[in-house]
Model the fold of this input.
Amino acid sequence: MPPHPDSATAEKNLRSGSSVWKERQPPCSVLIDSIRADIVVVGAGVSGAFMAHAMSKKFENVVVVDRRAPARGSTASSTAMLQFEIDTPLTKLADKIGMASAARAWRRSWRATQALVKLVQAENIRCGLRRASTLYLAGSDMGFRGLEKENRARHRAALPGEYLAAEKLREIFSIDRTGAIFSPGAASADPVRLTDGLLRRAIQSGVRLFSPVEIKKVMATPHGVTLDTGKHFIEAKYAVFCTGYELLKDVPREGTKITSSWAVATRPRANYPGWLDETLVWEASTPYLYMRTTPDKRLIVGGEDEDIDLPSYRARSLERKAGRLTAKTKKLIPGIELSIGHTWSGAFGESEDGLPIIDAVPDMPNCYVVMGFGGNGTIYSLIASQIVPTLIKGRTDKDADIFRFR
Ligand SMILES: Cc1cc2nc3c(=O)[nH]c(=O)nc-3n(C[C@H](O)[C@H](O)[C@H](O)COP(=O)(O)OP(=O)(O)OC[C@H]3O[C@@H](n4cnc5c(N)ncnc54)[C@H](O)[C@@H]3O)c2cc1C
Done:
């Protein structure tokens, strides 16, 4: 989709259908004058919320703006499986960027997942967070031999997980696949309440949240950055663009693409095997099927990704995709009953290596961008909120090199 002619970012119809998450409204202000800030965060989705929260601990005058109400972009489509496991298996990522960097990326993802859980608990954010294990099933991309190799590589990289052979998988989970990796350390949550909670804590620490405010132009100089809203200016020392899949104009996008993904949620009190409340399921297939549950006992199933970025296609495929997700789930877990209450779809971002881009924007001094691609985008949002403030403070983050523009 071409960039919107009158905006600093592309404007997309990010979502179709009805997401299972209820809207929330943290207190927003109206921008009635031009203002100054140390840091301006553009975007109040989950990436902007983590960023605002982290910045509030390090900078005095932090401002967040969004052209929508908070968490009404792709954050509302997320199924919020919070996994350290990157979409690209460690063994495959090692082929692309070398084992040392791949292991660093995976370990960073592990630490960030644990940090996310601790942060939510420490800040007492009520977002339905539940710790879980993950069950990564053999599929069309990797059979049992591939998974055994992957599990060995993960162990060498000091990552936990247990390989389950077909018999054990059948015995414990009644799933008929050639093997699986069972790992601890994941979680799930309500992404809208997570974003709302982070923004509320940031506001309590002095962050100002303005919505709706659209950034139309960015004027970056070696001394700071001025954002033009069409009516007012926001002058800041630094700007951080957390605009999700509505990418900043002129930002390099080689090796990345925007695709489409679909999800369904059953009605509450669904009848599924109890172990699903403690286990996130996904598979080594392209596209992959995945599932989790919620505290009110809904089963959420997602996947069916397609390499196409057309809102009209996303919308008209809702029923067909819901049928396919339901059929695949019934095949995987025989006897399961599914009464679908919500079906939705959303734009989804992918990068060739499955890693995000967290970096200074080329040729735009004092501007940083967070492009959290992949199925564990939320974890990348948290990593970005660790890296960007560190870089702005002039310090180094030992993993920042992995997430640069490629
Ligand atoms: C079906 C589906 C399932 C998913 N499941 C998972 C999952 O299980 N786990 C996971 O971790 N991730 C998942 N994701 C990915 C996850 O949704 C994204 O990583 C995440 O939502 C990105 O958040 P964000 O804050 O970067 O973007 P957004 O939520 O889109 O927020 C960006 C904000 O920037 C604002 N903005 C853009 N341009 C401007 C401008 N010029 N001026 C002002 N404001 C602007 C937008 O209005 C928007 O609110 C899933 C995605 C989909 C579609």
Observations:
- The first strand starts at residue 15 and ends at 17.
- The chain has nine helices and 18 strands.
